[in-house]
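task queued by scheduler; priority normal; single chain, no ligands, no partner chains; default sampling; output format set to structure tokens
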Amino acid sequence: MRNLLRQLKNTAKETPQNLYRLYLVIKDRRTPMLARVLAILVVAYAISPIDLIPDFIPVLGLLDDLILVPLGIWLVIKLIPDELWQEYKAKKSTLVPHARKLIWLGIFLVLAFWLGLLALVVVMLL
């Protein structure tokens, strides 16, 4: 049980840096298209204020973030070449210089999703 808690703690500590690495992987031309699309979705979900299960629902609201984001990161890592991930993992970069770009990417993706959903509803009603 302690080992599992230690692993969860380490994963939680690495998540922000791994999300930044995914952002860099998205921009790399060596990244396969499927991995790139999945990385975009994972980063957008992680920085989006909108969750599948709202955070105000006790336990479940936080569990989706604790499960879906690390699962998405793991899946993207499995889909990209190992050398590429190791290259980005070896870099000691910080999130601060690119935080604004990530925030704007998240805002754009959330707005695009809701505008697309609104357009779909309007088309279905007409």
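post-processing summary
- Helices lie at 2-27, 33-47, 60-79, 82-90, 99-125.
- The CA atoms of residues 112 and 118 lie 10 Å apart.
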